[in-house]
Specification:
Elements: H1 7-11, H2 15-23, H3 26-47, H4 55-80
Keywords: Coiled coil
InterPro entries: DUF465, DUF465_sf
Organism: Pseudomonas endophytica
């Protein structure tokens, strides 16, 4: 069953904090947009029960999403320390 990821919950930050960090960092805003798009792709691929989506393709989509999330986590962590 496909599950949309809640980025703020995954990162352990309140949504308000994440929005505040975004306002001050256009790069973070762009990464969050990329993450949202990547997450949507994963959810859609999983929702179709893998019809037309190979395991390798799904794994690649998840890897892309994770890499973006790691970049976001790094930026958010640096903002939280300020």
């Amino acid at each position: 069953m496909p599950v949309k990821h809640d980025l703020s919950q995954d990162l352990g930050f309140a949504k308000d904090d994440l929005k505040r960090f975004e306002k001050n960092d256009p790069h973070l805003t762009a990464l969050i947009a990329k993450y949202t798009a990547a997450d949507k792709e994963v959810v859609e691929a999983e929702a179709n029960d893998g019809i037309g989506v190979t395991d390798q393709k799904l794994l690649k989509l998840k890897e892309v999403r994770l890499k973006i999330k790691d970049q976001i986590a790094s930026l958010v962590s640096s903002h939280a320390q300020r």
